[in-house]
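Here is one chain, start to finish.
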Amino acid sequence: FTVDQISFYQKFFGGLVTAAFSILAAMVNTRFGVIKGLFVAGVAMAASNLLYALLAIVGPNTNLLMFTLVIDNFFMAFSTVAFVSFVSYFTSRTYTGTQYALMVSISNFGRTTLAAGSGGLVDFLNGNWALFFVLTSLMVIPGLFLLLRVGKLMQSYDREQGAQSAS
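Its structure:
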């Protein structure tokens, strides 16, 4: 693909998809809860990485690129909404701005530091982008288990808070 094609599909269509699906994501996360929303988003984003692996195998196919970017941007919007809700859960009303900024910065640390080494991983894999995207899909699994644990801890905390406020 040319840089112009990638830019056009990712930025133009991706931006439209992100804006439209952010509203849908907010409704789903409100209905089913933040932890379930994050879990679904994690699985879906891993699955969208498998579309990139397929694209690496198939080669330049504009329709597949468009489909992959739409799916990727949909789940990016979905996960962003769920993540903002998740981080907001942990902020106090008094220090919301500071706490939110700190938690988002910490959460982005892993993403930015790991992304820096992705080119080295692709080189190690002899340029096998399909395998790279399969590996990135598998890397989601530990985070999903951690998310389930955090969800249980949040439920316990909410029950304790409810019991304390009732007494």
